[in-house]
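Input record, target 12 of the design panel.
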């Protein structure tokens, strides 16, 4: 047995570290936490508010193996990640494995490289209980909020809902943005652009593009201005030149990496973190959960060497950035490559693209400013006080722009791009008018959040920490409080008024506006739950409360606050609030509203959240007759549905006619509208209206579904009807007696030709493993 046992939290990390430490060290993985709060219970003593941890069943064998190896080892090294979660994993290992704390070494490192690991071994420390307690405080407080408020939602709104300290506030942000958009009234205005001709001394001509700073509010005003331009002489009144410096962005933190990967690479926040985790565990980048922009002197030196070798001394400007956010840990580093000399890596396309982004951002942060000369030309009119402005920019020295340019934020529509180069001009020169165009534009409503802009907003408000953004955004979508938009937008007409020669023409053009593809939209359930929580738990939903709690966690981590007292103080105010809301009587469920009276039965018609989502209901539970229900399709909203639209829904199910001696009918249910034929269901694709779909379209969809099913079922066997070879999302596999078995890649191409014996051999060998 080895003299030294090193325990890390992931098997990939274990493999990388084992390569560096030699035969005297055995490296094992705890596969994350080896104990936690119970999944389906509060697991917190409500008298003392102390957590009650358990080892989950699926971790018991692993714990037994770790215990056996820890006992046999001369020395145990706990090497989980360097953040609070990692510290807690080490503490749980210490407690569960019965390790002697004085004889157990805690080691941390920002990167998985041989020098960093060997350095950590030389400077071990003990477990930092302040960091552990900060993690416990977060875990306990979040469990109390989630487990206490969720049952209130089950009773007052609908079953299976959940609440969370960070997730509910994130949904609130999306809901409030949606309501801003709904209440926004767009106004038209006219923006005027001109193209002038300037003539040089040698007789050559050049175009100058300019814009009028004034905006006109009507077509008449814009036309009147163009009429004035017909007889105007345009002269250069002023030329000003000034140098500009552009400075590179600091190296990546977790949130800025998530934002840039979303904008530049199209990654989701979860995808970015998953790929970054692999890069870290393979020793290619530093730790990917950090809010520090600090770089080690080693990295600054290595960056300088790389930059000078590639582009020369003038491109190098070593810098040290400092983190401004409170609670950031300067001992940590920004996310950077472990070796700046590695400009390319082996890996899948996602890993290569994310690594390239990190390398370029790190290199750019150590490069010289870009020097730009900006020229502004003011063009006056002989018959008006109005003037046009032409801007030109010349890059005199590209500096960091040679490597990297930061993307504009999602809300910064007009990204800062370099203007074109202006021709040589002199004050007093007369310009010839080529054309002047007034284009109708519209004031823009606030933009819906994307994953990247939501991360930015959460960080601005101090809600959550780097490690919480990805799981929070995933959770609110899984819980169906928020969904990603898929509308391409709508056509809108806009007017173009053009003055060319001495004629003014007016034309209308079309543009697509209002696309919400990939944007985060609240569902009806998200809207109702947010309103309910805002009415009943305003403190929990308050942005300041969430940010203040984060600061308290930071104080616990610094040893300046007792975590148990903090939780007790919070619970004293929180528990009575929960009891009061739970026991409050109300005539209607949250979000329920009456639309009117059913003209046929004279019964009231309601829209509300049902067990499986938004529904319309005719009648009440007190009536002699049972109420009638209709599921609300995804295209309709609880807030805007009218009585007439609601009554249309009760036309379902619709019978369209017989096909193959069985009726084809259209209905709607828990998972949306469907076709029912011969006891089989076919979901209606998005955009197909269940109230207008015709017989032929329905039959086509039934045939398509059958074809898909045939392609999915590759082979069945007379020897055993429970055995089947199937085609799945990730390739062919064997299904047998309710369980699935992987096929070796070499067999994928011949999956449909497998014999019964070959299939059973694969199943039996999988069972033995």
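The sequence produced for target 12 reads:
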């Amino acid at each position: 047995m080895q003299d030294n046992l090193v325990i890390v939290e992931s098997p990939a990390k274990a493999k990388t570290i084992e390569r560096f430490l030699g035969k005297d060290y055995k490296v094992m993985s705890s596969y994350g936490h080896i104990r936690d709060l119970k999944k389906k219970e509060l697991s917190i003593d409500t008298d003392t508010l102390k957590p009650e941890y358990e080892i989950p069943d699926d971790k018991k064998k692993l714990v037994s193996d770790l215990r056996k190896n820890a006992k046999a080892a001369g020395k145990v090294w706990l090497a989980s990640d360097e953040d609070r979660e990692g510290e807690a994993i080490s503490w749980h290992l210490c407690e569960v494995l019965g390790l002697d704390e004085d004889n157990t070494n805690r080691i941390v490192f920002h990167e998985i490289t041989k020098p960093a690991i060997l350095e950590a071994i030389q400077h071990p420390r003990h477990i930092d209980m302040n960091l552990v307690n900060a993690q416990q405080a977060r875990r306990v407080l979040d469990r109390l909020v989630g487990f206490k408020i969720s049952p209130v939602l089950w009773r007052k709104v609908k079953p299976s809902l959940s609440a969370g300290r960070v997730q509910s506030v994130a949904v609130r942000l999306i809901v409030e943005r949606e309501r801003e958009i709904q209440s926004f009234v767009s106004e038209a205005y006219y923006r005027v652009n001109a193209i002038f001709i300037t003539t040089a001394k040698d007789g050559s001509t050049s175009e100058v593009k300019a814009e009028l700073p004034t905006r006109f509010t009507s077509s008449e005003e814009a036309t009147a201005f163009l009429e004035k331009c017909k007889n105007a002489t345009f002269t250069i009144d002023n030329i000003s030149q000034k140098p500009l410096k552009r400075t590179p962005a600091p190296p990546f933190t977790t949130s800025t990496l998530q934002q840039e990967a979303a904008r530049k690479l199209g990654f989701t926040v979860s995808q970015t973190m998953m790929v970054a985790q692999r890069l870290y565990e393979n020793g290619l980048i530093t730790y990917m959960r950090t809010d520090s922009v600090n770089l080690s002197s080693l990295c600054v030196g290595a960056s300088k060497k790389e930059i000078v070798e590639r582009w020369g001394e003038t491109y190098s400007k070593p810098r040290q950035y400092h983190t401004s956010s409170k609670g950031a840990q300067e001992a940590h580093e920004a996310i950077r490559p472990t070796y700046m000399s590695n400009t390319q890596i082996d890996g899948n396309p996602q890993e290569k693209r994310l690594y390239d982004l990190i390398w370029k951002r790190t290199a750019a942060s150590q490069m010289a400013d870009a020097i730009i000369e900006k020229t502004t030309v003011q063009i006056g009119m002989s018959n008006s006080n109005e003037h046009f402005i032409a801007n030109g920019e010349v890059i005199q020295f590209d500096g960091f722009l040679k490597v990297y340019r930061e993307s504009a934020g999602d809300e910064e529509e007009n990204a800062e791009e370099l203007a074109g180069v202006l021709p040589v001009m002199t004050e007093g020169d007369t310009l010839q008018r080529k054309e002047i165009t007034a284009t109708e534009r519209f004031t823009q409503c606030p933009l819906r959040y994307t994953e990247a802009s939501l991360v930015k907003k959460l960080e601005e408000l101090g809600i959550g920490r780097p490690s919480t953004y990805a799981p929070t955004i995933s959770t609110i979508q899984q819980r169906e409080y928020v969904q990603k938009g898929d509308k391409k937008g709508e056509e809108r007409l806009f007017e173009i008024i053009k003055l060319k020669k001495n004629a003014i023409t007016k034309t209308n053009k079309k543009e697509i506006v209002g696309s919400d593809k990939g944007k985060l939209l609240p569902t009806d359930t998200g809207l109702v739950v947010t309103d309910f929580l805002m009415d009943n738990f305003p403190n929990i939903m308050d942005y300041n409360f969430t940010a203040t709690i984060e600061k308290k966690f930071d104080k616990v981590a610094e040893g300046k606050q007792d975590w148990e007292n903090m939780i007790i103080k919070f619970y004293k105010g929180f528990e009575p609030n929960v009891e009061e809301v739970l026991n409050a009587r109300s005539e209607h469920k949250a979000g329920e509203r009456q639309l009117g009276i059913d003209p046929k039965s004279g019964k009231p018609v309601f829209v509300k959240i049902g067990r499986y989502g938004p529904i319309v209901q005719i009648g009440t539970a007190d009536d002699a007759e049972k109420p009638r229900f209709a599921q609300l399709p995804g295209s309709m909203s609880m807030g805007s549905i009218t009585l007439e639209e609601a009554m249309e829904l009760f036309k379902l199910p619709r019978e369209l006619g017989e096909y193959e001696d069985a009726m084809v009918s259209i209905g709607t249910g828990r998972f949306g509208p469907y076709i029912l034929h011969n006891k089989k269901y076919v979901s209606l694709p998005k955009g197909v209206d269940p109230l207008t779909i015709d017989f032929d379209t329905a039959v086509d969809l039934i045939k398509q579904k059958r074809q898909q099913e045939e392609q999915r079922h590759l082979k069945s066997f007379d020897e055993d009807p429970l055995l089947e070879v199937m085609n799945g999302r990730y390739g062919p596999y064997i299904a047998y007696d309710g369980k699935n078995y992987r096929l070796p890649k070499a067999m994928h191409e011949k999956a449909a030709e497998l014999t019964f014996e070959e299939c059973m051999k694969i199943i039996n060998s999988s069972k033995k493993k």
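The mean pLDDT is 90.
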